[in-house]
UniProtKB/TrEMBL annotation:
Keywords: Cell membrane, Membrane, Oxidoreductase, Transmembrane, Transmembrane helix. It is a multi-pass membrane protein. It is found in: Cell membrane; Membrane. Residues 125-411 form the NADH:quinone oxidoreductase/Mrp antiporter transmembrane domain. This is NADH:quinone oxidoreductase/Mrp antiporter transmembrane domain-containing protein. It holds the Pfam family Proton_antipo_M. It comes from the Bacteria.
Length: 704
């Protein structure tokens, strides 16, 4: 019932925007659409709490087949995430919608609401037809958001690229679903999952790979991830939080729903998902480091974070396929946790980028600087988002990345050497990714917020809109709470992992540290006391320490961490320093003129920019980037007046996969085109040969 009301509100919100005027229609549209998001989020919470699948709508359409919708716990989580992202982004969306005329204003809001409605339908789809229909509807809505600024060439080109790769991925995913449905004898997704154990291993591997790389395109998994920076970099600024924080999860959910049952019986598929995720993460952060456009940098970072979440999912499926479902559940929890965290801090950062754009008119990092003094609230929240995405404790990014890296170390339980090597290499790639991400998100706030303003736009920055600052504050608080309340989040995600792997890792690994009174065996309790297992139990509202252990093993600890205790230590340390400096060592400040070495004033162009900060990375990875140097010069007769150099970096997926594929396709097309040129006798011979072949086939079939 809540879904029906929400869909009605989705439809009514954009219609209100068509009313003449600006303030009242925008306010009413915002209230209706926000109410719809709240209702959808509540229904998502209900689905998570139910813990089982519940049918919602069952239709049987002629020719097409069943068009069913089912409420599942995993779908409920994705609906909660999606509706939350839209709820905090809608104020900014409605504000920017007022920049258009009334007709385009309603169209803009309508496309945004269609995106949300189609995504919710996709997370509820129970049959192949409903699954693909909602997927395609969401793809078209996303294309509409990207290309809404149709007067500019870049959004149109980015939209066409997105739509082309999306349809290519959809075709691969559809082939995968049809293969599985044909083997299972049912178009229902649940029925297909139940029939997987009886299917051919070859069929499962082919279908699994098609689904992973086809649907994974929407999540930015290599090699079809080149659309993401272009799309997010050119989309309207208010829609970027939606595109990154919500729509990328479509790909993760799709291959979770399709590939999870397959990978449990095909361990090699889990290893491919793990290694592809780790490689995607590294490639994403490397390209993010050399971007000077803030939106494109954040988009490349989305590729990185989707890769991390994918690696966690792949590790979980691999552990389970090799007979270790508890360890698989631990890795799966880390992957799902990072998916939630990415939606949180990436929505926060894209809102900040949009707010900076609204205040300065630019999102070029080389033209920013000095914004912390001019936009203190936005800058502070943006800095928290940078801390979270850089995986610094006690914020949420640290929790999921630490849990993932720790869980990967448990590959020692699997005796197969190739599996251990794959896990080791993937872990090394993820560790390198974490280090580069820290570098990247030191550079981002440093270039945008610190130092001196490097342009008149930054120097004359206007006040940031409240429709950006207030949602950023909520998301910054959520990023902190998701880090501190890990022991509250992990049991919920463990129940969702159980629907995929059949085992609840929390109930089996940590049944004692999440319940009071604790029922930990005394021997294990005393063994864990040195790492702080008993701290906080008497006065904290929830367990402070995350300890995953295996009973009846010589080394029972899988991993242990506590962001809550870390936060307490940080508060004490920083408070002590403040007291020491401000209270105990208080003294009068004296100001003296220092020797300036001949430099009377520091100029903005002398400070670090994003380009100069990334110079070492470009040098180290020059062979990877394979840059193309464009030289431009201005002449007056025989004299060169100016000469400039511009470095063009092409994505490795485009360079090694997409462009060669296009060349092969064009070559084949050119050869086939010759069939359209010739004499009438040639075409008659084609027809004659075709008729003979058909007659032979029919005759041979008749004799059988």
């Amino acid at each position: 019932m809540l879904y029906i009301i929400a869909y009605l509100l989705f439809a009514a919100g954009p219609l209100l925007a068509l009313i003449p005027g600006r303030r009242i229609p925008a306010l009413l549209a915002w209230l209706l659409m926000s109410s719809a998001c709240v209702l959808a989020g509540i229904q998502g919470i209900i689905a998570i709490a139910a813990g089982q699948s519940l049918p919602l709508i069952t239709l049987s359409l002629p020719i097409i087949g069943p068009f069913d919708f089912v409420q599942t716990p995993l779908g409920g989580l994705l609906i909660l995430i999606t509706s939350s992202v839209f709820a905090v982004a809608i104020p900014f969306v409605t504000r920017d919608a007022n920049l258009y005329a009334s007709g385009r204003r309603g169209l803009f809001l309508g496309i945004a609401m269609l995106t949300l409605a189609s995504m919710i339908g996709f997370f509820l789809a129970g049959s192949i037809v409903a699954f693909i229909f909602c997927w395609e509807l969401a793809a078209l809505a996303i294309w509409g958001l990207i290309t809404f600024e149709t007067r500019q060439s870049k959004p149109v080109a980015a939209g066409l690229l997105t739509l082309a790769l999306s349809e290519l991925g959809s075709l691969a995913g559809l082939v995968s679903l049809l293969l599985l449905a044909s083997a299972a004898g049912t178009p229902q997704l649940t029925g297909i999952a139940h029939a997987v154990p009886e299917m051919s291993p070859t069929l499962l591997m082919i279908a699994g790979l098609l689904a992973f790389f086809g649907f994974g395109m929407k999540a930015g998994i290599i090699p079809l991830n080149v659309w993401l920076p272009a799309a997010h970099g050119t989309a309207p600024r208010s829609t970027s939080p939606i595109l990154s924080g919500a729509t990328l999860n479509l790909g993760l959910y799709a291959f979770l729903r399709i590939d999870a049952p397959v990978a449990l019986h095909q361990p090699q598929l889990g290893l491919i998902i793990l290694s592809s995720g780790a490689l995607t993460a590294l490639i994403g952060i490397i390209y993010a480091l050399v971007e000077k456009d803030m939106k494109r940098l954040l988009a490349q970072s989305s590729v990185e974070n989707m890769g991390i979440a994918t690696a966690g999912i792949g590790a979980g499926l691999t552990f389970a396929a090799y007979g270790h479902p508890l360890l698989g559940g631990a890795s799966m929890v880390a992957g799902l946790y990072h998916m939630i965290n990415h939606s949180t801090f990436k929505t926060l950062l894209f809102l900040g980028a949009g707010g900076i754009d609204a205040s300065t008119g630019t999102h070029n990092l080389d033209e920013l600087g000095g914004l912390m003094k001019r936009l203190p609230a936005l800058g502070s929240f943006f800095l928290i988002g940078a801390f979270a995405i850089a995986a610094l404790p006690p914020f949420n990014g640290f929790v999921s990345e630490w849990l993932l890296l720790e869980s990967l170390l448990r590959v020692v339980e699997i005796p197969d050497i190739p599996v251990r090597i794959t896990f080791a290499l993937s872990g090394a790639l993820l560790a390198l990714t974490s280090g580069l991400a820290l570098t990247c998100f030191i550079m981002l706030p440093g270039s945008a917020l610190m130092g001196l303003p490097r342009s008149t736009q930054a120097a004359n920055a206007k006040k940031a809109p409240l429709t950006v600052v207030l949602p950023m504050g909520l998301l910054a608080l959520l990023a902190l709470l998701l880090g501190l309340a890990a022991t509250l989040v992990i049991p919920v995600l463990s129940r969702l992992a159980a629907t995929l792997l059949g085992t609840n890792p929390t109930a089996s690994l940590v049944p004692d540290f999440f319940h009071i009174p604790s029922q930990v065996p005394m021997a294990i309790r005393h063994a864990l006391d040195p790492i702080g297992a008993s701290l906080g139990g008497a006065f904290l509202p929830l367990r402070s320490l995350v300890v995953m252990h295996l009973d009846q093993t010589p080394a029972p600890v899988v991993y242990a961490m506590s962001t809550l205790l870390t936060f307490g230590v940080l508060v004490v340390m920083l408070g002590s320093v403040w007291i020491l400096v401000r209270v105990i060592r208080r003294r009068r400040v004296t100001r003296n003129t220092l020797w300036d070495g001949g430099l009377t004033r520091l100029r903005p162009e002398m400070t670090y920019t994003a380009t100069t900060f990334a110079a070492p990375v470009r040098v180290v990875f020059q062979g990877f980037f394979h840059p193309l140097i464009e030289e431009n010069e201005e002449r007056h007769g025989a004299f060169v007046l100016t000469r400039s150099y511009h470095q063009v970096i092409t994505n490795i997926s485009e360079r090694l996969v997409i462009r060669p594929s296009i060349r092969v396709a064009l070559y084949i097309a050119s050869r086939l085109a010759k069939m359209h040129k010739g004499h009438v006798n040639t075409y008659a011979s084609y027809i004659l040969v075709a008729m003979v072949v058909v007659l032979v086939i029919v005759a041979s079939a008749g004799t059988r």
